[in-house]
Please model this.
Amino acid sequence: MNKTNHSPSWLSRECTMTSALLRSVPPAFTAVLVLTVITMNFLSRITLLSLPWLALNAGILVSWLSFLSMDIAAKHYGARAANLLSLVAISGNLLCCLVCVIISRIWHHPELDMVVGGQWSILLASTIAYVVSAVTNNYTNVMIGRRFVSNPDSKAAYAARSFVSTFLSQVVDNFLFVFLAFVVFPNLPGAFQVRWTLAQCVGCSVACAVLELLTEVVFSPIGYHVSKVWKAKGVGADYIQRYCPGGVLEG
Model:
C-alpha cells in the first residue's frame, strides 16, 4: 500500500516559523517594536511643520525606534526573521485600530476614529509604507553585513549596515506614506482631506530621513550593545540553528 506524504503547506510552515521566532525573541523587545509602530500610527496624522517645500508629521518622533529595533533583529536573526517581526508589529497596529473603531461604533465615540489616524487613508498609507520600508531596511542591512566577512561583529560593520539601511528605508517609508496619504488618497471618498505638494513630499522624505539617521547615530551604541549581549547569551540559538543553517546573513 502506498503511503501519501503530506508536506506542510507554505502557510503552515510560515506560522510554525513565526511561532518559533516569537518564542526565541525577548518579549520586551517585541513589545517595544509593536508599541512603537502603534504610536507611529497615532502620531502620523499630526503635522508639526508645514512649509511650501517641507512638511513634517509627528510620527518622526518615534519612527527611529522601530528601525533601530529592526536593525537589531536583522543583525541577530537575519532579514527574514526581521520581516516577520515587522509583520507582527503592523498586525498589532491593525488590531489596535480595529478595537478603537469597534468601540467608536458601539459606544458612539467618533473621536476614536481620529485617534487611530483620521480615516482609512492614513491607516492604509502607513501600513503600505511601513511594510515596504521594513523589507527594504532588513535586506539592505543584511546585504551590507555580507561585505564585512573578516569581522562581521565589529562596530564599523554594525554602523555601516545600520546607517545605510536606516537612511534608505526611511526615505522609502516617509515618501510612500506622505505621497499616498496626502497626494493620492485625498482624491478618494472618505479619505483624510489634508493635501501636500510633491515638493513637500520630497522635502519631508529627505529631511525626516536625515533627522532619523542622526537619531540612529546617537542611539546605535545601544543597538550594538544589545546585539553583543544577545550573541554572548545565545539568545534565540534554537531558532537560528533550525531556520538559519547557513547563518543569519543568509536567512
User: Anything to note?
Assistant: The chain has nine helices and two strands. Strands lie at 47-50, 55-57. The CA atoms of residues 51 and 126 lie 22 Å apart.
